[in-house]
Design brief:
heterotrimer; A alpha/beta (517); B alpha/beta (446); C alpha+beta (125); B: alpha/beta; Aspartate Aminotransferase, domain 1; seven-stranded mixed β-sheet; four-stranded antiparallel β-sheet; 12 helices
């Protein structure tokens, strides 16, 4: 360690501040906006001349220029390549982000999704010409039904939050059909923000449930809050503290006894996939995140896909379109009629995130039943390994075994002057994306770590060694942490200024300068 | 197993370090009754070769749009995406990166989102745009919800010429969020009779509309504003804004649209790309992510996600929406494609689309019994046939032509629309395709 | 001498005759961090004790500001709408939010005084 801290002291103000003429630093290249590199009239696409025609635009031709910049293909390729080099990614390093399941994104899935028979197919083609697509969607549904143990799957939601909305709408429809509309949704305090936001979108009032000292839902508190006006409990299991709700059968029983539904946020399904089926836990509706458990790429923020597994009591309310068997193959039911007469309606244009379905099925078939079980086991093993490697230096919020993620809080930083945020920024200089910070809200300065099964033991050891070293350093070098990160293309950015005076687009006249005065 | 780095040796070492005998000990909190004996009933692991074979067989059962004369639109459009786009979005640093919550590690994503937001604002003629939503239909529903928040009214009026999927999504959202939606009946070729009163939060129109017609909505915007309501304009074919006057110049308050047409394949309906733009004064009511410009500790320009306090992870039940994701990689593909096109390229692309559609409409009108409903269009229009369109489309498919979408697919029970066919033509349509279509149509109608 | 009182939601209220000025406390502005935006009610709005009167946003949080008492809004501090940093810099002075005409002139009696509030904050840890 001595050599390392000496080097740190020696280099601290030196190399990273070396000025260059370009502002570039070796492989790190500064890159302006495309709007600042305009060659008017230029174009990176060669298109033929339009044939002569009589305009039929009804007098609504565009008169003023749009204001888009013109560049050639080499400039565009260089522009976006340089931008990409400023991004961290799973392909470059470890993301210990709790509740995100940042696992490796297999390239086979990209190849499969780009097969013309999947990518170059229009959703409105005649059914005879899309039987392969319907077969793929049904096959995926079969895999999801089997893994969850639930009899039905709604595939159209475009993301996890969209899936939550779907599940809550189905619950509300079921209760309305029963002549028993209810007003309240119970949500643990540790829940992800989408849960209460979704419930509110559905017109429900939210009633929070406290956690017990073991980090699980307080069963007594839950029972006290249950009543004939509670429509559902929205639970995450394993929960956002990385713990399996061990009283889940009692929870399910209590919820059902009160005539309510049991909704489960499936964000943490990676811990139990292939080993535990949500149906066996008494769950009525569960959304899955294909971009978490099932490896579809995060793409810098999306697209995702959030199918919802449904119990028999909720299946009739699934959104359209449905896929049914018909003479000569499969058919789409696109309207609220026939078998889908009780559907809640449509939640999205067309049919669903087909591109993500292809990738997911490719992933599932690659792992198989045995591989998926191994995924859950390795995910849980990796998290517990980090737990024991870090438990000495960090403060684990809920002692004992965890599932696929482990929760720490900022007690270990007490009196150091270093916050969870500072700690995370120092990790960046070490070449790691920080863990999830400040979530869940029920502990102070949370640090939630989820390694996933695609990290090697060597990667975990390096991460643990680094975190432990930083925890030790935090006791004596608050200033160093406050200055972090120092080695990234940009240092800490002023988020306050961005929110006070939002600048959300480039403007030609504003003379937006590259550096503040 | 190729995606799992742990060896059995690693597992043993790690179990020992943790202090448990077997992996089952780490699942001790799972109730006994929920433990599975053995594996779930699904096939075992397979190599790339087998998986590729199985999925290729499924793909082969579909007719790829590019393999036949192709004329389907209806809210998703087959445009040619330059090869560079797909190469760039597959760079691992774009493909496999996370949401840019740690901006120091994500300036690539954030700068490209800022460029995307600027492009969308410029195209639509609006002041500010977000970093994308799931798709056009959900963007439309979000626009209605935003209009309700701003006006504190709860009734939205939807044009009869709004894409039926968009109307249906608005109706579903309305039903569960407790607001009202008044959807006018579709009347292809005729303008809607729109009533606005002091309970109307917004009027939603589509441009070009679902049947392809272009209408100046400036007068409608004025009527809305007089009544204290907002005008929401929906654009499902973004390339049309390369040739047509933008909604921002006609008084739109919110523009919601579909960006799939640039950078993104048809993908059987998803993932697509919701576009959302509004007036600066309403920016804090906008759903979704926003990339904003700022400076770092050294005073250098950079970008961050901003105005997050509106979003679910902070506001929770008081959020502007429950949205968590944007359509990141699809937005990047859009940005790259549009950057390659630039002003000159997009203008030319739009002219090409329109010219080809004009030629198609002239040619189809020479087929006996066929007439074009529209007085105006960009690259899509409604065709009136002498008999029901749905069986005609099936027969055309047997001829090897994907000749449009029958309106009856969207409006079951509307007998007055059964003979109507929605037809689109983009720059990917050739003169030969048009001849084959016209010829096949003539045969089918005989 | 105007009466100064505090609420458990970290608002302060300073009564002078039949009107009172309301804002958020130093503790509240510290918890929120840099304030980026405030949403103030319109003059003339009726506010109810315990119900939302205004919203204050920072980069990492958004919070309701609850009316400590019932009354009618007679003035709002446009200065903080234009420059939210004032709330951080001087929460008890220039960072005031709104002035209400009290429905009940004795409404402040039930609220914590400065000593009691200081003890309350100390308990928050």
């Amino acid at each position: 360690m001595t050599g390392w801290s000496q080097a740190l002291a020696a280099h601290s103000e030196a190399a990273s501040d070396m000025p260059t003429f370009t502002g570039n630093r070796g492989l790190q290249i500064e890159e302006k906006l495309i709007f600042e590199q305009d060659s008017p009239g230029h174009c990176g696409v060669d298109l033929p001349d339009p044939p002569a025609h009589r305009s039929r635009l009804g007098g609504l031709e565009r008169k003023a220029p749009i204001g888009l910049p013109g560049l050639s293909e080499p400039q565009i390729v260089r522009h976006f390549t340089r931008l990409s080099q400023k991004n961290y990614a799973i392909d470059s390093g470890f993301y210990p982000l709790g509740s995100c399941t940042m696992k490796h994104n297999p390239r086979l899935n990209e190849k499969l999704a780009r097969l013309p028979g999947f990518a170059d197919v229009h959703p409105l083609q005649p059914e005879a010409t899309i039987q392969g697509a319907l077969e793929l969607v049904e096959t995926l549904a079969h895999w999801l039904r089997t893994l969850t143990g639930m009899p039905a799957v709604a595939l159209s939601p475009a993301a996890g939050a969209h899936g939550e909305l779907c599940g809550m709408m189905a619950i509300r429809a079921a209760l309305t059909a029963r002549g028993d509309p209810r007003q309240r949704i119970l949500v643990p305090e540790s829940a992800h923000g989408t849960n209460p936001a979704t419930a509110a979108t559905c017109g429900y009032a939210i009633d929070p449930i406290a956690a017990n000292p073991r980090g699980r839902v307080d069963l007594a508190a839950l029972k006290a809050k249950l009543g004939s006006d509670v429509a559902a409990l929205m639970l995450t299991n394993p929960n956002t503290c990385g713990l399996f709700e061990d009283e889940i059968l009692e929870i399910a029983a209590a919820v059902h006894a009160a005539g309510a539904f049991f909704y489960c946020d499936g964000a943490n399904f990676n811990a139990i996939v292939g080993r535990v089926r949500p149906a066996d836990l008494g769950i009525d509706a569960l959304h899955l995140n294909l971009h978490k458990t099932f490896s579809t790429p995060h793409g810098g923020g999306g697209p995702g896909s959030g199918p919802v597994a449904l119990a028999a009591s909720l299946a009739p309310y699934a959104p359209v379109p449905w896929i049914v068997h018909a003479e000569g193959g499969r058919a789409l039911v696109e309207h609220v009629e026939g078998p889908a007469a009780n559907s809640i309606g449509r939640l999205k244009g067309f049919h669903g995130q087909m591109g993500m379905f292809v990738r997911t099925l490719g992933y599932m078939m690659s792992h198989g039943a045995d591989g998926l079980k191994q995924v859950a086991e390795d995910a849980v093993l990796n998290a517990n390994y980090l737990r024991v490697r870090l438990a000495g230096a960090l403060s684990q919020s809920y002692p004992g075994i965890c599932m696929h993620e482990v929760l720490f809080d900022d007690r270990f930083l007490k009196d150091t002057g270093v916050t969870t945020l500072d700690f995370a920024k120092a990790l960046i200089d070490e070449g790691f994306h920080p863990m999830t910070m400040y979530f869940p809200l029920i502990v102070h300065g949370a640090l939630l770590i989820e390694p996933t099964e695609t990290e090697s033991k060597a990667s975990l050891d390096q991460f643990a060694d680094t975190v432990n070293a930083l925890a030790a350093r935090a006791k004596t070098d608050a200033a160093g942490f406050h200055a972090a990160p120092r080695l990234t293309p940009r240092r800490r950015l002023d988020e306050t200024a961005a929110a006070r005076k939002p600048l959300l687009r480039w403007r030609p006249e504003s003379g937006q300068r590259e550096a503040a005065e | 197993m190729r995606y799992l780095p742990l060896t059995s040796n690693d597992r043993q070492q790690m179990l020992a370090a943790i202090g448990v005998k077997s992996i089952d000990d780490l699942f001790a909190d799972v109730p006994r009754s929920a433990h599975l004996d053995g594996l779930v009933d699904l096939p075992l692991a397979q190599g790339e070769l087998e998986v590729e074979r199985a999925l290729s067989q499924m793909a082969a059962k579909n007719v790829a749009a590019g393999s036949v004369p192709f004329f389907i639109g209806g809210g998703a459009y087959r445009h040619h995406v330059p090869a560079a786009v797909d190469h760039l979005i597959q760079r691992g640093e774009f493909l496999t990166s996370y949401t840019p919550y740690q901006p120091e590690l994500a300036q690539g994503t954030l700068q490209s989102l800022f460029e995307f937001q600027t492009q969308v604002a410029l195209l639509t003629g609006m002041e500010v745009a977000n970093a994308s939503l799931y798709d056009g239909a959900t963007a439309c529903a979000e626009a209605v919800a935003m209009a309700h928040r701003i006006t504190r009214r709860s009734k939205a009026v939807l044009s009869g010429a709004l894409h039926p999927h968009y109307r249906e999504v608005c109706e579903t959202y309305a039903q569960f969020s407790g607001f009202q939606v008044e959807a006018l009946k579709p009347t292809p070729g005729l303008a809607d009779p729109i009533d606005i009163d002091n309970e109307t939060s917004c009027v939603v129109v589509q441009y070009p509309d679902f049947f392809g017609e272009l209408r100046d909505c400036s007068a409608l915007a004025a009527r809305c504003h007089q009544a204290g309501a907002l005008l929401v304009v929906v654009v499902t074919e973004i390339v049309s804004l390369g040739a047509a006057k933008p909604p921002g110049e006609m008084g739109a308050d919110i523009v919601a649209g579909e960006g799939q047409g640039l950078g993104n394949a048809l993908n059987f309906g998803g993932p697509y790309l919701g576009l959302f733009a509004a007036r600066q004064q309403h920016v804090r009511q906008m759903p979704g992510r926003l990339a904003g410009q700022t400076v770092d500790a050294d005073g250098r320009r950079g970008w961050v996600l901003t105005l997050s306090a509106r979003e679910q992870h902070i506001r929770r039940e008081k959020a502007t929406s429950n949205i968590c994701t944007n359509s990141g990689l699809c937005a990047l593909a859009f940005t790259i494609h549009l950057a390659l096109l630039g002003e000159a390229g997009l203008t030319r692309l739009a002219q090409l689309n329109h010219a080809i559609a004009c030629n198609l409409s002239d040619r189809l009108e020479t087929v006996p019994g066929v007439s074009i409903v529209n007085s105006s269009f960009f690259n899509e229009f409604a065709v009136r046939l002498p008999k029901p369109a749905a069986p005609v489309v099936e027969e055309l498919a047997e001829f090897g032509v994907l000749g449009g979408v029958p309106l009856s697919r969207f409006y079951p029970g509307r007998d007055d629309l059964t003979n109507l066919l929605l037809v689109a033509a983009t720059e990917t349509v050739t003169a030969d395709d048009i001849d084959l279509f016209a010829h096949a149509l003539g045969e089918v109608l005989r | 001498m105007p009466t100064l009182r505090f609420t458990k939601d970290h608002e302060w209220i300073r009564q002078d005759g039949d009107t009172a000025v309301i804002g958020i406390t130093d503790y509240a502005q510290q918890q929120l961090g840099d304030i980026v935006y405030v949403e103030l009610p319109a003059v003339g709005t009726r506010v109810e004790a315990g119900k939302e009167a205004a919203v204050v946003e920072s980069a990492k949080a958004a919070s309701e500001v609850y009316a400590p008492v019932s009354g009618e809004v007679v003035a709002v501090n446009d200065a903080i709408a234009g420059d939210p940093a004032k709330v951080n810099a001087d929460p008890m002075g220039e960072g005031w939010f709104l002035t209400v005409k009290l429905a009940d002139p004795n409404a402040l009696d039930g609220l914590m005084d400065e000593t009691a509030y200081a003890a309350f904050v100390a308990e928050q840890g």
